[in-house]
Amino acid sequence: MTLWLLFQRWAVRNFSQLNSRNLLLTLLAYGAISWLLLALAGEKELTSSLTDFIYYLFVTASTVGYGDMSPTTVFGKWVVSLFVIPGGLGLFAMAIGRVASLFLRYWRSGLMGKRSLKVNNHILILGWNEQRTLHLIKMLQHEEKKRRKIVLCVRPEMENPLPGEIEFVRVTSFTDQEGMKRAGIGHASCILIDNPEDDITLSAALFCANKNPDAHLLAYFKDDALSQLLKQHCPNAECIPSVAVEMLAKAAVDPGSSELHHELLSTTEGMTQYSVNYPDNAQKTTIEALFAAFKRDYEATLIAVDAGNGVELNPSLDREVPPGSKLFYISDERVTTFNW
Question: Which residues pair with 277 in a beta bridge?
């Protein structure tokens, strides 16, 4: 029985369960047998140098065939014709297929949200509300302008809705330790929870507050009672209530109010509301001085201040503004640099 038949049977038997180990062993066996046969054939030019031998095998197996190295003896030509070329072509195709399969599996695992993410200082969105969530992501992308990565974490079995634009993780539960760890919960700078069920939102918010107390936690509730319950346990959490009814009532009394609210909330068109922190090392000032400076220097309108006791809308002009206060203003674009 020839060496080729032995090799063929061994390869068929092992490749019935193709894996990386079997493929590596087969490649090593192919290389060793090829070198031995060529050495016996007296092909010194092909076997004297390991670099030249490996180069020749790769050029031959990949069908490139530069022609700068080739067998010169009769037996060597038969070895190359009956073993080196056929075996190399098959193994080269298998190796390429294996590598492509690994890359495809890696890409697919990311698309299905099964991969652990290496992210830091990112915005983590928990929940999936179809077009509502997509609209939320688009607004965040416009607002952040690639400053912070956006990670979408969902429970339904689905694929990444925006591959290449956001990171994606699928979990069985928003309180699953391992699943939330894959989403980088401990390193998120902002955690936004917008789930269709309020009870899941509440449990997710409590879990996130425990795992990352330093993150800016926002939770959307349909039931205001649950938002109050969350505030009792997590005073730093920012609860976003449903304002649909309030907007309907306001528009009924003051026509056009809904358009105004929409423009103030939209980040892609018209005047929008923003916020900025008054520096801790700045001098104490007044609303009157800041209001004039905002309008004169930035075409912005100061509308509220939070000095630590809650938001004060439309404060009086003589209201003092201590260092560290949060200022809210309206402008066409976010002001990136203030000259305090």
Answer: 326
